[in-house]
Predict the 3D structure of the following.
Amino acid sequence: MTDVRIRDISPRLTFQAQPAATSDKVELVNRLIAAGVSAVEVSSFVRPDLVPGLADAAEVFAKVDRPPGISLECCVGNGTGVKQAIDAGAHVAWFLLSVDAGFSAANSGRGIEDSLAVLERLRSIAADSELRLGTYLIGTWGGPTGLPRRPSELEPILSRLAGIGVTDWILADSFGYAAPPQIRDIVTYAAGFTGYEHLTVQVHDSRGMGIANVAELARMGVRNIDTSLLGAGGHPAVPGAQVGGVCTEDAVQLLELMDVDTGIDLVELIDTANWFADISGHDRGFTHHVGAVPRVAGDPRPERGEFAWPTASNSQTS
């Protein structure tokens, strides 16, 4: 049984900001899948003149392995992108919606209201296909320059999303504003609109709080968490910005020691992280440097601790 599904976003988040051979992108996705990662954000179907690093998205989707039970996912920004995602056989597409007005205009050239109108049109396109359409909420906890966001400030956007029938959401701490109390407050608030089973939380580590937030999400019983191998990532409009997710290998190590199953082979994941460091130049995190915590002899998982999932009486999951 898998207690937490880790979705690795490093292929999209890394290569949107730096060039790489298509073969390396395909190998990264295949290595992640072989290590047991069951959901991967492979690429984005966006304008190649704006994000040239992902211009080969369709080719990558055509070449990656597709074993049963794996979800190959992407980002989209308009109807053309949704149609390309459908043609490529993507399982899930995530619309790039920012909840910060300034960043929305800079990132997509649209305000929040215009973006929501676009998303409503995209839903009708996806409805005639097998593609599942959800949406990012970029900057859920605030940023990149403004104050941290209170839960109630999200109400107009969350209500609108629920109203148009887009109920799968990625709550992204895109700028690393949140510590565990803020994680708990906003996730709990958002779940009131769509349910915990429809939420993915994307943890970034810009300010060093990412791994603590992963632990908090596990304690809450959140099942879907986004991370990035090596903490890799960047933004094409902000060269050099530290926008990578929390390191997948560090998160998996933490969850194993909390006795939370991810279904991922940590040793194989570390091998993949070290390979990826050589080809990408990214080198954040700890576990790939020092290795996994030794396992108890004869036990394929670390010794059980005192961590336990919330019971029906105290869990907020549905």
Remarks:
- The chain has a mean pLDDT of 90.
- The first strand starts at residue 5 and ends at 8.
- The first helix runs from residue 10 to 15.
